[in-house]
Recover the amino acids of this structure.
């Protein structure tokens, strides 16, 4: 269990590092996706119980995982997917206009 | 009874039916846009007038497990801003968006649905979802012109906004992990025996995430870039509503979940007031250097929101009233200024300050409205900006933040310099400017409506204050809010 939380922290910091330091637009979008995945993983961990099954209200299933976090994770995936789609569409437009993906060069060309 | 639910459903329904009507029934598209806006205004007025005492709407009778909506005076204030800005925005946009773009109206309805959802919900995760709905559609609106600068600025906006959302989502997940609930009242009760360090870490994530969306100092750079080449009616809604909705979410979350005592104890109040002072001084200095009208107004927005933050975070009843009053006044004043700039942009393609030279004689009424708006935002009597700024200074002095009160006066002089620069250019004699298209009544009417509100709220401040003075009752003492939410 603990090692999974460590993985979440590493993924989160890695994604943040990518967003802040990288100059390539695609890499920034990748960084955002990594951070988002780490948060989804965290959501799953929060609701997880060892040996738990699907949340069915029946006497045979005593240990069930938390269904709320799963619903939240689904919502987060949908939001993240649409944000990534909009971002990539903008990256395509920017590449068509400036013929480069480097943030510094775009800023220079923009004047 | 279920009127509050319709405040969210109506714009959402309109957005989707506009999508269908764009494909199959093009003729009724604009009738639908206007009709729905008028119906929405009527609905908002009904909800605002019945907002006191606060009521809880439990959707589907699930009680605390389900989705609960609550209309309290602070929500009613934001619904009032939507009511004042949305119909003028729609009327203005009809004419302003020259070639007919159907998507523009679909996204504006989605954005308003997101904001009204944020304002009404009592659930932390719903707040996050509605915030994402409003910020994504806000990005789509800001892209509308599809120019190089517009796309680049919007990309920066989307990156920053998503970056902030991650911290808010992280704080939400950690809150759920600690308390096992997402209902704000239950969180507040469960937080009482949480250790100090864990609570303040969660609070720091919330504050950092929302500070990006609000545009406090180091994270402010996206705002002028996003405003520079976006359609101007969108700027009205963005600075009036989208930015303010982040302020709403921040104070609602902090005051209800953590409580004023914890905010004071953890030193957040002092930090935010200091942060606000640095932000508005820097923003005023940067605004002075701008030659682009949109960028100048964007920096002015950053400064004004810093004033609002100071008012809301001095932590007294007077401060909350002053800050909330400034939220309303800033929406009206900035709306007036952006609308006038929008008309100049529409009829003369004016972008820079130089372009509006000598227009004071050509458009006498509009220029006068601009002067009224800018004097109000600087904070001169008898306009509405003076009233709320005065209240903020008074509240800061009363709470012992003398330096904040002093710098607000310094900031007033700084803002006077750059607004005077624009006004002087407006009234400098110039050769006949090149007129592209005459501005119609549908552009002038919303502008003059908001401009006259600046004067009316300045002379009769008791009109909005009647509603605003009830706000601290349900914020400063979170017990009342919790009792209503859990009892209902």
């Amino acid at each position: 269990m603990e090692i999974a939380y460590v993985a979440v922290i590493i993924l989160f910091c890695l994604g943040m590092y990518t967003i802040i330091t990288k100059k390539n637009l695609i890499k920034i979008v990748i960084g955002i996706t990594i951070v988002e995945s780490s948060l989804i993983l965290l959501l799953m961990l929060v609701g997880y119980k060892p040996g738990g099954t699907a949340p069915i209200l029946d006497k045979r299933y005593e240990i069930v995982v938390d269904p709320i976090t799963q619903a939240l994770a689904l919502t987060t995936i949908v939001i993240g997917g649409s944000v990534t789609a909009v971002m990539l569409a903008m990256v395509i437009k920017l590449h068509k206009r400036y013929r480069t993906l480097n943030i510094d060069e775009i800023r220079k060309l923009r004047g | 009874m279920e009127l509050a639910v319709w405040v969210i459903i109506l714009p959402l329904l309109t957005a989707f039916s506009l999508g269908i009507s764009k494909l199959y029934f093009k003729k009724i598209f604009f009738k639908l846009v206007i009709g729905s806006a008028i119906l929405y205004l009527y609905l908002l007025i009904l909800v605002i007038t019945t907002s006191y005492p606060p009521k809880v709407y439990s959707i589907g009778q699930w009680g605390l497990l389900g989705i609960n909506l609550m209309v309290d005076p602070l929500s009613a204030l934001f619904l009032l801003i939507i009511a004042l800005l949305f119909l003028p925005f729609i009327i203005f946009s009809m004419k302003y968006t020259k070639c007919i773009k159907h998507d523009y109206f679909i996204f504006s309805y989605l954005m308003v649905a997101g904001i009204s959802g944020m304002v009404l919900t009592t659930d932390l995760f719903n707040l996050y979802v509605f915030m994402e709905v409003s910020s994504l559609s806000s990005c789509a609106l800001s892209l509308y012109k599809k120019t190089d600068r517009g796309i680049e600025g919007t990309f920066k906006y989307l990156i920053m906004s998503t970056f902030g959302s991650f911290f808010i989502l992280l704080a939400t997940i950690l809150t759920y992990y600690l308390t096992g609930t997402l209902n704000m009242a239950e969180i507040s009760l469960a937080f009482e025996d949480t250790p100090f360090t864990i609570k303040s870490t969660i609070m720091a994530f919330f504050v950092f995430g929302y500070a990006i969306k609000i545009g406090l100092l180091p994270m402010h750079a996206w705002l002028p870039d996003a405003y520079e080449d976006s359609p101007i009616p969108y700027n009205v809604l963005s600075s009036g509503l989208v930015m303010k909705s982040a302020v709403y979410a921040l104070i609602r979350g902090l005051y209800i979940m953590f409580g004023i005592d914890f905010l004071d104890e953890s030193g957040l109040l002092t930090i935010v007031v200091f942060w606000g002072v640095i932000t508005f001084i820097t923003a005023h200095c940067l605004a002075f250097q701008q030659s682009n009208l949109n960028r100048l107004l964007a920096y002015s927005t950053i400064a004004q929101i810093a004033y609002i933050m100071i008012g809301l975070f001095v932590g007294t009843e007077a401060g909350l009233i002053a800050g909330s009053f400034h939220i309303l006044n800033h929406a009206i004043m900035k709306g007036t200024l952006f609308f006038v700039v929008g008309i100049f942009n529409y009829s003369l393609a004016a972008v820079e300050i130089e372009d509006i030279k000598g227009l004071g004689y050509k458009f006498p009424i509009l220029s006068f409205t601009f002067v009224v708006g800018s004097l109000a935002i600087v904070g001169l009597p008898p306009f509405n900006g003076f009233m709320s700024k005065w209240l903020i200074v008074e509240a800061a002095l009363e709470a012992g933040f003398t330096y904040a009160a002093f710098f607000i006066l310094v900031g007033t002089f700084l803002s006077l310099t750059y607004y005077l620069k624009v006004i002087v250019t407006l009234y400098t004699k110039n050769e006949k400017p090149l007129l592209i298209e005459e501005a119609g009544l549908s552009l002038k009417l919303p502008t003059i409506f908001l401009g006259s509100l600046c004067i009316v709220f300045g002379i009769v401040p008791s009109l909005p204050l009647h509603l605003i003075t009830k706000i601290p009752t349900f914020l400063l003492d979170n017990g009342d809010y919790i009792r209503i939410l859990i009892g209902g």
